[in-house]
Amino acid sequence: MSEKSVEIKNIILTEEGRNLEFDVIVKSKIHHLYFRSKSNPFTPSTEAYIIMALLPAMKSGQDIVTEGDVDSRFNNSLKTIQSIFINWLPHQQLRRFSLPNNIKQIENKTLSDRGLACFSGGLDSFYTLLKNKTQITDLLFIKGFGKDNEDPKITTKITNHIHSAAMELDKNVIEISTNLRPFLTKFFPSKIIHGAMLASIGHLFSGTFSSFFIPTSTTYNDLTPWGSHPLLDPLWSTNFLEVINDGSEADRIQKLRMVSEFEFVLNNLRVCNNKSDLWLNCGECEKCIRTMAGLLAIDKLDNCKTFNNKLSTESIRRLHSGNVLSSSVASFYPNILYELEKNEANYDLCYEISQIVYNRNLSEKLRDSLKNYLRRYKYRFPKIYKLFRE
Amino acid sequence: MLENRNIKIDSIILTDDNHLLEFDITINSEKHHIFFRSNNAKLTPSPEAFVSLLLHPAMKTKKHIHLEEEIDGKFLDNLPTIQSIYSQWHPHLQLSETVQKNLRRSKSLNKKRERTALFYSGGVDANFSLLKLKDEIDDLILIRGFDINLENSDLLNRTSELAREIGKRYDKRVIEIETNVVQFLKRYRKLIHFFSAVLSSIGHILSSEIGRVIISSAENYASLTNNIGTHAVLEPRWSSDSLDVIYYGCKASRLQKLDFISRDEFILNYLRVCGANNKSALNCGECEKCVRTMTGLLSLNKLDVCNSFEKKLDVRNIYPIRMDPFKSYVYSEILYELEKRGTHRDVCFALSTIINRPNFITTNKTLLKNVFQRQKYRFPKLYNLILQK
Q1: What is the phi/psi pair of residue B35, to 5°?
Q2: Has residue A71 been placed in a domain?
Q3: A83-128: pLDDT as tens digits
Q4: Which residues of A fall within a CB distance of 8 Å from B95?
Q5: What is the pLDDT of residue B4?
């Protein structure tokens, strides 16, 4: 095993291509990865392996070694992908890697007319599916992506809803299970790796599909670093698989307005990652509250059958009291609040939501900004400042 | 009345051996005469150029763009996304299908030319792109009438002279495009909001000679904001089958770019960064852009060898600078570098003041405003009464 490279080895494809396993060796430690598909076979893909190894390699300062030739378009994008991560994560001191692989000759291959979309049953998934229903032929549901992998009963309930939704639009569902997420989250948090994770899995089906849709939760107004991003996702593409970041043109309310026109969506909408035996959505977590508030704002909450409880001021208060939501999560709420306040009957809820929107831990920010403002005197009175610090 | 729903381009004339392109834009029955004049490259009346220019006014006024010619398919497919981006960044612009309702898709594929051009202003970003990509770049495009008024012929000529010197030094053809289109578009909004569209239109107007046009990024991937005129998610979407629009430079921060270009003594003495543009001086040495560059050079210990500025750095010019997310990022990087050197404490004090001052004042104001705004949900009648007063 080389200390200088992240190696992908021992690639095994069994069960008529529906079971893929291999080892990823990072700094002499072996991580065994598996991918299991219920129906469609995998296509061994050098690009998929490189994407999976990319962030661990950059973090550990190693090159990547894997078999196979690399697609030319993908190879050209690698430099930019690395630049993006280096810029986004300056404190991680990521290092660029090199690839010894040869570049694939471009074949005169007819592109498939089939499109695959990531589908979790959430708002972004439904929006992408409905918007691109002509191009999308299959839906990809990944077990082990959220927190649902632990309880088989819950997983079964979720997959039933996914299949029910897919049947309405006559789409095929590809269910896969994998341990890729726990591997990648050893190196970076989920919010950084999820785009790369989805893209790598998409490449494992590149023999069948020519487009791969990743539904996004961000808008063009919020282009802060995020694992799935309009700048980053298309860079995972090859000459034969187009990776599409879809949905940035619409905010939460616009997406809810569009999807809530369809009864089957309101019967199958799943936004929650918490365990719940009876309901698809717990109704208490931040994602549930966010969605329920949006549905209430457009007067569709009563039509949605996947939440068991009404939206209450107590549940919103529990969310924000003693708790500052991250800026990326808090950014979802202003336009929900804007819509919700059009009806005075919602004012109690609006008051609580405004705490999320406005109360961005301001008193702490005030204290910090005063501290920073006074810190400038270290340049005027360096000795006194030093004495004070000691 | 039907005409009032459209923005029309007509009376398109190409003269002077294809070096002068003129046309009329009619909005709300008001006609505006626009020209583009080139010193050497041939121009083409590109429909994609017209759409780029009219998109902003059309979205603002909710009118259709009316063109006889067919539009490149790739360009047309990107229009809805460009509109989405604009409508999210600038809420006064409405997303509307009416803008491209009357546009027809071209069935033919236009040939892409071989030449690559860089939009060149003489600034840090443009010089960074030039030095990094000098083997790929054939031409430099200088726009007269963009940030410098057409009436200021003295400064325009000095800028042209600078670009020609650079062109001579690096063996690049300098294409000077003079236009009054910015004066027309400023009726609808500030320059920074349609910066990108103007650059795109000029690229398309030159597409009979140029196949690839490079726009230099002002920000890096970590600091991309949406109020600097150009953006990595926007620029490439102006591309067509006959013109690639490339956005270059996001991998390096402002200071990294300055460090890189300052190793070239020639470039260091031919910099033009000034935002004031109101006298004949290439760099006034007082405006925010000059101060930003001068403090950056100071932090790299290169200010003394740079002769591009009319005046020495005066610390008093730092204090009036107002922060935004982009400037905050840039000045923080400069301060960090100066701190490492342990020199110029007066400059450090000034930079620290301007970086942290907005946070302190703004946070106070925001706290009060937020407390007040939340009361609208508790005491709606009283809130409305206070607002009316």
Answers
A1: -135, 155
A2: yes
A3: 999 999 988 999 998 888 888 876 666 778 899 999 999 999 999 9
A4: 249
A5: 66
> At a CB cut-off of 8 Å and minimum separation 6, what does B249 contact?
B125, B128, B129, B132, B216, B217, B218, B220, B257
Average pLDDT over residues A212-235: 91
- What secondary structure letter does DSSP report for A211? E
Residue written as token pair 């810029």: A87
State whether A358 and B232 contact (CB < 8 Å).
Answer: no
Nearest-by-Cβ selection for A88 from B85, B222, B374? B222
**What's the number of CA atoms in the CB half-sphere (13 Å) around residue B117?**
29
Task: Tally A–B CB contacts below 8 A.
Answer: 110
Q: Assess whether A221 and A300 both reside in one domain.
A: no
Task: Answer whether A205's CB lies under 8 Å from A116's CB.
Answer: yes
Q: Which of A83, A221, A341 has the CB atom closest to B88's CB atom?
A: A221
Which sign, positive or negative, has the C-alpha torsion A245, A246, A250, A251? negative
Identify the contact set of chain B against chain A, taking CB-CB distances under 8 A.
80-81, 84-85, 88-89, 95, 220-222, 224, 226, 231-233, 250-251, 345-346, 348-349, 352-353, 355-357, 359-360, 363-364, 366-367, 370, 373-374, 376-378, 380
Q: Are residues A281 and A242 in the same domain?
A: no
Query: Which domain covers residue A205, as residue numbers?
Result: 5-98+111-246
So what's the pLDDT on residue B2? 47
B chain contacts of residue A80, beta-carbon cutoff 8 Å: 251
A220, B89: Cβ pair inside 8 Å?
yes
Q: Does the pLDDT at position A24 exceed 60?
A: yes
Same domain for A133 and A230, yes or no, is yes
Do residue A134 and residue A278 come from a single domain?
no
In this complex, do B348 and A84 lie within 8 Å of one another by their Cβ atoms? Answer: no
Per-residue pLDDT, averaged over B289-297, amounts to 96
Question: Which residues lie below 8 Å from residue B168, measured CB to CB, with a gap of 6+?
Answer: none
Q: CA-based Rg of chain A, rounded to a whole angstrom?
A: 23
The reply to whether A44 and A182 lie within a common domain is yes
**Is A379 a domain residue?**
no
> What would the two tokens of residue A154 be?
């819950």
Contact across the interface for B88 and A249, Cβ inside 8 Å: yes
Residue-wise pLDDT tens digits, A298-324? 999 999 989 877 888 888 888 877 666
Residue A249 has pLDDT above 50, yes or no: yes
pLDDT tens digits along B123-135: 999 999 999 999 9
Band the pLDDT of A381: cuts 50, 70, 90: confident
A370 to chain B: closest CA residue: B360
Report yes or no: B210 and B71 within 8 Å, Cβ to Cβ.
Answer: no
Q: What is the pLDDT of residue B172?
A: 97
Nearest Cα neighbor of A47 from A79, A13, A73 is A73
Query: How many Cα atoms are found within 13 Å in the side-chain-facing hemisphere of B39?
Result: 14
Is the minimum CB–CB distance between A372 and chain B shorter than 8 Å?
A: yes
- The structure's pTM equals 0.90
Digit-coded pLDDT (tens) for B98-147: 667 777 888 777 778 899 999 999 999 999 999 999 999 999 999 998 88
Instruction: Say yes or no for a CB contact (<8 Å) between B251 and A86.
Output: yes
Residue A76 lies in a domain: yes
Contacting residues of A for B239, CB less than 8 Å apart? none
Domain count of the fold of chain A: 2
Query: How far is A15 from A20, CA to CA, in rounded Å?
Result: 9
Residues of chain A contacting residue B348, judged by C-beta atoms under 8 Å apart:
376, 379
Do both A58 and A145 map to the same domain?
Answer: yes
Confirm whether A377 is domain-assigned. Answer: no
Residues A227, A145 share a domain: yes
Nearest CA in chain B to A220: B85
Same domain, A279 and A231: no
Q: Are A269 and A122 in contact (CB under 8 A)?
A: yes
Domain ranges of chain B: 3-248, 254-364
Q: Which of A348, A369, A375 sits opposite B363 (nearest CB)?
A: A369
Q: Give which of A132, A370, A379 to mutate to test B binding, by max B Cβ within 10 Å.
A: A379
Give me the pLDDT at residue A146, please.
61
